[in-house]
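User: I'm putting together notes for a lab meeting next week and I want to include a structural view of one of the chains we've been expressing. I don't have a solved structure, so I'd like a prediction I can at least talk through. The sequence is below, exactly as it appears in our construct file.
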Amino acid sequence: MQTRSYAVLALGFLVLGASLVAQQRTALPVIWQDRGDIASLDLSSGAGGRQREPAAEFTFVEASASGTSPKFVVEDEHGVRWKVKLGEEAKAETAAARLLWAAGYLVDEDYYRARIHVSGLPRLDRGQEFVSAGDIVSGARLERDTGHTASTHWSWYDNPFVGTREFNGLRVMMALINNWDLKEVNNSSSAPEGKGLEFAVTDLGASFGRTGDSFERSKQVLEDYAKSRFIDGVTVTDIDFVMRSRPFFLSVFSVRNYRARLKMESIVKHVPIVDARWIGARLGRLSRAQIQDCFTAAGFSEGDATTYTDVVMQRIAALEALPVTTDTSGRVEEVADSVEAR
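Assistant: Thanks for the context. Below is the predicted structure for the 342-residue chain, given as structure tokens.
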């Protein structure tokens, strides 16, 4: 009888231990996921896929005063809420989200629509220039509202992933798309039900233009993106990418902003070559058609989508051409088909 009691007790400990291990695994923070066969991904629909695309008809819910772009919330005929963004970031953000998703990073489910019909649309304080015939809105990026209200911002300089190749790969991605607005407020972490913390860059609108101060930088300007430099310098172990965020010299009087913008340049500096080659190898598995899908799905003309694709492919080729090396800790380069991310 006593032996049986010990057996039951031991079994209880095993079950409890397995439960705790499962909880610990669930609680692990995530910033990157293995997409499997990258060459088979559908980048015309992106992270949400075709099955989660927005419906055809929308009803106005409320305006949003956040950010620099005009925004408001709508609900489609299936009861799904969408965050609408208008203006110069709409196309760039849609394309950037698809490219980052293909590389393995967590992104919003974004879709672009050249025109949408919004019932009950009031006169907008911001973005009225994109409205015609009273309820037709042009150039809308639609982001699915996941309902994750308990989200926080995370820092590029202090997070659970600093030093990992997945995080370093994300730094490379910011340089590759010329995303110059790397403020903490544009990064979000949330914990979907049954999962650990998920870290993502949730505002990618300041991309595919030129980095620089407030007089030089741009968003989704093809000529600026095509003419900008990508790699700033390479050492035996590290690579520096081009990121110009230093404000106009008179803005030094706004000390906090000056320091923050200046510090942003360091985000794409001293990236281990092994990690830059790793993300370059993953991106290199994408076909030209897949990359072009990122831009055509974002509403760019066929000609602009083709040129954007040319530039992205040139930058990927530059990453793949980096010398095989080791990092400062002696970690040998690995370009694996799958990685267990933290």
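A couple of points you could mention at the meeting. The radius of gyration is 22 Å. Residues 5-25, 334-342 have pLDDT under 50 and may be disordered.

User: Perfect, that's what I needed.
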